[in-house]
């Protein structure tokens, strides 16, 4: 059962509980929601479609909500296939429907649906569309998360249709239709944000500056719960995340260990940091834990220690892949400390220094600790000094 967003705005999205990997890369143990909305006014507007995997289910929900009426407009805010995948089915069912989108989105529409002609209306920054008592205002949001993206503000009910912004992993049947029913929105919203939009902090800031003066009463994203209470809390988190600020005081230890020696050292370092009064220490095993979770924690905390084994004269590949992902996501404004391990020719530290050196405002602190096979009592002074350096 779903509730209406407002009396004239209906939720018609669908849950996907069978998806193995979102974007073929992110585990979604609680599934995923593809949100879509219907505005019933003198004119009827559908707000985005859903992934083709759930197209039929979505069309059934749409038919039910339409209750015999026909949609006049399909507003396409984002052309990524998790939202545009059912456009063709919709336009075949309702041939008179007009697609409202940015010029760039219409280019992408042609690329995804080659040879199909659509009735379209191109909109640009600030354009409006009157449905009757509802007026939709379109605001472009390039690179949140693709270049063609726009968001839509319903001036009557003050609903912000936010595209991918304020989205979250997880099906609504698992976390609730509304944010206030969700015990821990930030956990999966943070993993979603940094992995999907982490690179695009500046465009997210531009969008926030445009939409906050409109004082939205409801934020209706394309994934995850609809937000209608405590909006200041969600917006505050987005301000921190999009400016690469520190959300939680503490240290994140990321570890890539081959035979357990480096992991044992990382666990010992965690004890040392806690004993020195560090308020929180999170530890991820890069060889087995979800990498997207590790990326999330790298952004969440202001300080990180990377403990990694050497391999083939370089850096053990799980650590290399992690650093490569951080580079892609524009990870920045952080302090790091390094622990390398090697039985005969430790080489991890050199690669880690080069990779962190290429990142913006990343400061390497303390002396890199070099372990030989296993951490020994004689290594403790160096580990203590490293802990002091990262905590300073
Ligand atoms: Fe949910 Fe960028 O698509």
Question: What topology emerges from the helices and strands here?
Answer:
Elements: E1 9-11, E2 14-16, E3 21-22, E4 26-27, E5 32-34, E6 37-40, E7 44-47, H1 55-66, E8 73-75, H2 81-84, H3 87-93, E9 98-101, H4 103-112, E10 120-122, E11 128-130, E12 135-140, E13 150-154, E14 159-161, H5 172-175, H6 185-197, H7 201-211, E15 218-220, H8 231-242, E16 248-256, H9 261-275, E17 281-285, H10 291-300, E18 301-311, E19 314-315, H11 317-328, E20 334-341, H12 348-357, E21 362-364, E22 369-371, H13 380-391
Parallel strand pairs: 7-8, 8-9, 9-10, 14-15, 16-17, 16-18, 18-20, 20-21, 20-22
Antiparallel strand pairs: 1-6, 2-5, 3-4, 6-7, 11-12, 12-13, 13-14, 18-19
Helix pairs in contact: 6-10, 7-8, 11-12
Please explain how this structure is put together.
This protein has 392 residues and is α/β, with parallel strands linked by helices. Helices cover 34% and strands 23% of the residues. The protein is built from 13 helices and 22 strands. The chain has helices at residues 55-66, 81-84, 87-93, 103-112, 172-175, 185-197, 201-211, 231-242, 261-275, 291-300, 317-328, 348-357, 380-391; strands spanning 9-11, 14-16, 21-22, 26-27, 32-34, 37-40, 44-47, 73-75, 98-101, 120-122, 128-130, 135-140, 150-154, 159-161, 218-220, 248-256, 281-285, 301-311, 314-315, 334-341, 362-364, 369-371. The strands form five sheets. Strands 16, 17, 18, 19, 20, 21 and 22 form a seven-stranded mixed sheet that branches. Strands 1-6-7-8-9-10 form a six-stranded mixed sheet. Strands 11-12-13-14-15 form a five-stranded mixed sheet. Helix 7 (201-211) runs antiparallel to helix 8 and helix 11 packs parallel to helix 12 (348-357). The N and C termini lie far apart (52 Å). The relative contact order is 0.09. The model has no long low-confidence stretch (mean pLDDT 98). The structure holds MU-OXO-diiron (FEO). MU-OXO-diiron binds next to helix 2. Residues 78, 80, 82-83, 145-146, 164, 222-223 line the site of MU-OXO-diiron.
